[in-house]
Amino acid sequence: MKRVLLTYTCNLVVGVLFAQEINCDALYDKDSPCYEACQSYNRAAWDWSYKQGSRLSQMSLDTNVFLCPTFGKAYYVKAIPYLKRGEFVQWKQLIDSAVKYEPNTYMGYRGGARFMFLRDYEGAISDIERCDSLLTIDIGYIYNGDYHLQMVRAFSYAALGQKGNALAIMQDYLAKAPYAGPFDYLHLGVLQMELKQHDEALKSFAAQVKNNDYVADAYYYAAMVYKHQGNVQECKGNLEKAKKYFLSGKSLPGKSSYIDYPDKVYLQQIEKELFLIINR
Hints:
Blueprint: H1 24-27, H2 33-45, H3 55-67, H4 72-84, H5 88-101, H6 103-118, H7 121-134, H8 149-159, H9 163-176, H10 184-194, H11 198-211, H12 216-229, H13 232-247, H14 267-278
């Protein structure tokens, strides 16, 4: 049986059905069971009867794995519904098999999910750094494209208390990236604020607003810097804007999207700070 080494990024995005069609001819000999499994996978990928997570799709994926036990894509797609439902033990067993057989393709995806869903910081760092060592191309983004894996690596180090290291990773990534992600400057500013680099933090929050003026969270954290500096007027103004944005639905995704994003701010926090500043 022939296998062709592919230079995929280490993570993928999956749609409503299975995913993108696979080039079976490039991967397997036509007389091999894996070719048959791959072709079967492709047929299901375009059939709406096999909606992701349905009984029919999971049974089809079981058949793919039975025919070809090294078929990483089948393990990966079968794992996704378990992750969304919070059945992390089942997800981990399946995604580990996908990584075992196709590490170049799924290592980074697993690392991003370990941070975003499980807050498994050590596991996320291990996977992302391993992914980086495996590939000669950019390691890519998490499953929905909101964060580059280097940002997730920085989040993980910050959560472990290594904030200086996290800041260096973020700054290095943003200096080299062709464009910033939708929330990258917000997180950079939060790290700078926590490291008492207040002027730099305000610059980052301003950059966030310029790049993507859609997050109440940026105004809230800017208000916290102004509060530290004793600038009551700017603190109050930013808190009022944060509340307005939050009530308009302009904030980081929260629990309604399966998970809380890093540095997510909620309305109660904003209103508490507004109350304190008004009644000081």
